[in-house]
Amino acid sequence: MASCCSDEYSDHTDYICQKGLWNMHVPFPFISTKPEWDKLSATFLKFRKLPLSTDEAKASGWVQTASCKDDAYFRGNRYILNNDIAVMLLFDSKGKIAGIQNGVPKSGATTDFFKKPYWVEDGSMLVVSAYFVDPKVICAGGREESDYLGDSLYIQNGASPSSVMEIPLKEKDVGKTKWVNGKCVYAMGQHYWYDISKGMNCDDYFPAFLLYNGGKLNAFGWATMGDFKSDRYEHPPSFALGVTIFKFNFHYFGLL
Question: Which pTM does this prediction carry?
Fold first, then answer.
């Protein structure tokens, strides 16, 4: 869990627009140059344990709703708990955790924000996806047996799992990208928002943010416009992040 940040980064979070409500996930701390994780938890400050394998998922009541398919828009065997699409876990063909999805009901996704290519229509919901390993290996036999849960972060930005954005593991490499630094929040890290600028259209925001601590990628989160209900979400006031939006719904995943 992040506890400190470098003071050299300025606060640009005043760019965040004041339009509607947002749902945010803050997942997956990365703690080394080549991350090797053995824990996965959910919900900021509560850190509820999530299953690391399909065996653990089934034993905890998670239900498989989709399987690895070559023509699927995502990679992995998908499991959901209690029909809650806010957190959908992806496992590789060997049953190891490999990624995560956030789904929102199409009935509540009424703005142009949800017409961007990273939102993929899936029945009655729209979905964004992220992976902890290269998506190419998830359904192609899975990765080699090891204790680690992942070594990368890929955010899918199109309708195919081959359309992904690989996230820098080191903060020094972020400057080579369009990620813009925001506020550093205690116990979370230094926030980065994608390609934000003053006066930009709210509907053009990228639905994810990054968190770095000690120069290393510490977590990432979903930022979703709307007021979607799930006990996975938290609702801290906007001043908690130093951003000028009306409201946040927070959801934290820890991967240590």
Answer: 0.85
Handedness of CA 185, 187, 189, 191 (dihedral sign): negative
> Mean pLDDT throughout 196-204?
84
CB 16 within 8 A of CB 193: yes
Q: Which two tokens stand for residue 52?
A: 């690391």
- Residue 110 CB coordination number (10 Å): 11
Centroid of chain to Cα 145: 25
CA–CA dist 256, 236 (Å, integer) = 24
Tokens (6 digits) for 223:
């930022």
* Whole-angstrom distance, CA of residue 186 vs CA of residue 45: 12
What does the DSSP 8-state code read for residue 79? Answer: E
Burial of 112 (C-beta count, 10 Å sphere; 0-12/13-18/19+): exposed
Separation of alpha carbons 35 and 169, rounded Å: 9
182, 2 in Cβ contact below 8 A?
no
The whole-angstrom separation of Cα 229 and Cα 59 is 25
Q: What is the chain's length?
A: 256
pLDDT value of position 62: 98
Distance CA 25, CA 255 (A): 13
Alpha-carbon distances of 164 from 45, 55, 138, 161, 246, rounded to whole Å: 29, 28, 14, 7, 30
Residues 19-40: tens digit of each pLDDT: 444 555 444 544 444 555 566 7
Cβ atoms of 93 and 138 within 8 Å: the answer is yes
Q: Is 176 in a helix, a strand, or coil?
A: helix
- How far is the C-alpha of 149 from the C-alpha of 96, rounded, in Å? 7
